[in-house]
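Lecture 7 notes: from sequence to structure.

We start with a single chain of 228 residues. Read the sequence below before looking at the structure.
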Amino acid sequence: MIRLADDLELLRGFPPFGFNVYVMGGVVVDAATRLGTRRILRQLAGRKLTAHALTHAHPDHQGATRAICERFDLPLWCGEADADAAETEGLIMARMPPHWLSRTVGPRWTGPTHPVARRLREGDEVGGFAVVETPGHTIGHISFWREHDRVLVIGDVVANMHIYLGYPTLREPERIFSLDPEQNRRSAERLAALEPRLICFGHGPPLRDPRRFAKFVARFGRRRSEAG
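Now the structure, written as tokens:
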């Protein structure tokens, strides 16, 4: 694992930073696709774990969820508005915008569902971090914020990787995977206002450049003003 901060580690994967899974104060955050199950279970073996939490219920974040929960006897936690999708067969795909690409890769990446033991809301504590509700990409997307050292785990509100070409770059999530892009931009603006020093993404390497992140998110407001 890669240590990023106190009580925050990133599992190694292939491609590097393609589908990020974190251990955050004993809580496993996200689960990549079901194709990554063996590498995830191998890296988690022998660790003291307390729960498994999802930033959102999408195939590339939920894939190994049941395996993680069953292997390590962990409860599953998820944002309240995404919980039904996380535990209901077929609902993950049904809540994604219709597109040929998601219809093609989604069923290959989605893992078996698992009951949600705790439906997370704004301000709940998870592994020493506070839940921040950040809807848009999905209706129940959440992020995790630790104020004392200004560490942010952002899920898919913003990516730090070009998903088709693989190189690091700040990007909005692709419209074909996001239910409400404008609401997602507002969520990104809310997170940028926290002035995080370390931003950890669902896709892409961590970023320790608050100014770069703030500058990227500021474009959303300028576009909104120009359109209005």
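The mean pLDDT is 94. Keep this in mind for problem set 3.
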